[in-house]
Amino acid sequence: MNMNNKNAIAFSFGRAAKYYDDFAILQRKIGTRLFRKCSDSFEQKIILDAGCGTGFFSKKWKLIGKRVIALDISQEMLKVAKVGNSASCYMQADIESIPLKSNSVDLCFSNLVLQWCRNIHIPLSQMYRVTKYGGLVVFTTLADGSLKELRQCWEKVNNLSHFNSFLTYEEVEIACKIWLNKLEQISWYFLYPSFQSLLNSIKGIGASYLYKRKKKGLMTQKYLEKLVRNYPNVDNMFPLTYKIIFGTLYRE
């Protein structure tokens, strides 16, 4: 992904930083599952929270006695993390080029960040590199099939592309194959009381960059009304599916 795209992503998340935690229900649910999978049995001390956002999970690691490096591409996100005293130190950097020495942390924790990278082998390689022998890289990422209801709805309204594509499970498997690893995929199904609340859940977490808007005024009232009419409805609720890959790389 070129730097212009990265700057756009950083800006999008930075703009959402102040109210991110109000909308990040999905991120907390998925991250909590990832955290529980490794925190109970993991005794080592130095944690890199790669793509820390507002520091929600940095703080969870810190509260159980870990030394936490909070890394994020967005300066505004790091400001919020600092206000919350979420970590031991803070680092504004791209997960694709982590400015840490090799073999310097015990565990890399990365929750719903890799889908923003064009080639996930690069950030995985970086996290693997900075992890000490015997340590772990644990991550989650969105997979193909996520947001399928919204995607299908847009296709009925017009034939433009509005979303970045997500990798399939098989593509993530290929990216990880050079390392000892464990992967699993699960589905998360949300129901929203209104179409606007569904959109807010995406935009509020800074993910509005998912929309590849080619012309101004695309999300007008006219389009919103068309989307609502064409969106699948479940007992007057608006469903949205997420496909999540949970991964562990074992540092050898």
UniProtKB/TrEMBL annotation:
The keyword Ribosomal protein does not apply. Pathway: Cofactor biosynthesis; biotin biosynthesis. Transmembrane segments: none annotated. InterPro entries: BioC, Methyltransf_11, SAM-dependent_MTases_sf. Keywords: Biotin biosynthesis, Methyltransferase, S-adenosyl-L-methionine, Transferase. GO terms for molecular function: carboxyl-O-methyltransferase activity; malonyl-CoA methyltransferase activity; S-adenosylmethionine-dependent methyltransferase activity. It catalyses: malonyl-[ACP] + S-adenosyl-L-methionine = malonyl-[ACP] methyl ester + S-adenosyl-L-homocysteine. GO terms for biological process: biotin biosynthetic process; methylation. Residues 48-139 form the Methyltransferase type domain. Its EC number is 2.1.1.197. Belongs to the methyltransferase superfamily. Converts the free carboxyl group of a malonyl-thioester to its methyl ester by transfer of a methyl group from S-adenosyl-L-methionine (SAM). It allows to synthesize pimeloyl-ACP via the fatty acid synthetic pathway. NCBIfam families: BioC. This is Malonyl-[acyl-carrier protein] O-methyltransferase. It comes from Candidatus Riesia pediculischaeffi. The lineage of its organism: Bacteria, Pseudomonadati, Pseudomonadota, Gammaproteobacteria, Enterobacterales. The gene is bioC.
